[in-house]
Amino acid sequence: MVNRRQAYEAQQRRRSLSIAGISTALVLAAVVVLVPLAPGWPAVRASFFDASVFAETFPTLLQAFMIDVMIFAWSVPLILGLGLAIALARGARAPALFPLRIFGAVYVDVFRGVPVILTIYLIGFGIPGLGLPRPWNSPYIWGTVALVLTYSAYVAEVLRSGIESVHASQRNAAICLGLSERDTMRYVVLPQAIRRVVPANMNMLVALQKDVALLSFIGPVEILRQAGIYKSLLANFTPYLVAAVIFLMVTVPATRYADYLLNRDRDARS
Amino acid sequence: MHKVLAISIIASMIAVGGAQAQSCHEGKTISAGKLTIATGNPAYYPWVLDDAPESGQGFEAAVAYALAGKMGFMQEDVIWTRTSFDQAIQPGAKDFDLNMQQFSITAQRDKVVDFSAPYYTAPMAVLVRGGDGLTADMATLKRLKWGVVATTTALPVVMEKIAPESPPLIYDDNVNVVEAMKAGQIDAALFDLPTALYLGAVVLEGGQVLGQFTADETKNPDHFGALMTEGNPLKECVDAALTEMKADGSLAAIEAQWLQEATGVPLIQ
């Protein structure tokens, strides 16, 4: 049976749902009605929303997107490994390891501070310019290195915050049990730290998936560049819209999953 | 009497001709009495010298002033502005009357913007670095690793004519292509001949123009046209002026002055 309280709450819920529905419909209607009234709308529609260009370029762009996926796939383990190493270097307590801490701090400052695209340019053209023979001067290799350097700096900071979030009592307890500092980190601190920062690192991976497209600046023909080629050949911007749609097909589920992890984490704590 | 009549007829014809040239562009430019011409940012040799089109130095800068003169503009009525390729083709109002930055006329681009009659036809040329041991034939070209600038029509030529064994790498501008060549990431790049000659002689150390494709051999020889907004009423004035420049030889003279070294490059068999 529904009691009066539940009936009231159900009514309130229906009310807020219908208000939300009506306001959304009004906004949509305003956009759909008002935007086409703009004097330049036919030109914008022809340049950005050409259905035939969309259909023509979609298969090739989807194929080009596989290059992004590939670069992403081999970057991720490198980033996680290097990020963890940097985080541990920054957290090193022993006085003899002070140079390692300094290195970690400088590394993070440099690669978080320089825009990704600049790192890609400098490493992608600079290092092969030293005269490396093929295939070691490939833009794929050095572009990946640039991405790994940048993103491991972010991931290291996220991991470090996770490590520091583990309460000191955990370390003390581990020492009382006779664990070495190394084992404390490995069996007590890291498992908890890594689990806590999974949602934040999911966010980093979504950002990485998008930034892979920046490698197009040093030569690889991936989806962004392929869209640019079509734009130039067809004098039409629709291929960029296609590329955006293809990215969304991957990044929206990924961000939803990151949100889900975040919520689950929050619920588990409360 | 006859003489006077003839002179007065000629005089009135000149006056009418002048008046027509004056009035052709009237009300058709974005600012009255001025001709706004866009070029690239930066603009490259030999099209514009020292990135300063105001000097009239360089092929496109010289053509622009000659064209403006034929259309009845004074030299000081020419205003220069800069656009990227994307700004040139995006929908909406433009802040230029003409855009001259080696735009190749293609049917697909022509649907979106208007092109003037061509003012130059560029052969495509192959730029390599340290080309010893390379010969200008198709078998050699197929084996090379290619680089191309994305916004040019060189890419279809590489893909269809040369059809290299490994897919080409694509870059944003000439400088990046040269940088990739220095880094050994690519062996060869395709440019229009004057650009290839300049890059090979000045920018790329050890650069060499291996050969050129003849215009008739290429399916779509690269015709450069001035770009205008779609349906621009100014087009007829520009085309009339260009036709006149071709007929009186002034366009050829400008080409000879600024692009004269574009000869003597071996043809690719």
TrEMBL record, chain B:
Signal peptide range in chain numbering: 1-21
SMART domains in the cross-refs: PBPb
UniProt KW keywords: Signal
Pfam families in alphabetical order: SBP_bac_3 (PF00497)
Solute-binding protein family 3/N-terminal domain: residues covered: 34-262
Cross-referenced InterPro entries: Solute-binding_3/MltF_N
This protein's name: Amino acid ABC transporter, periplasmic-binding protein, putative
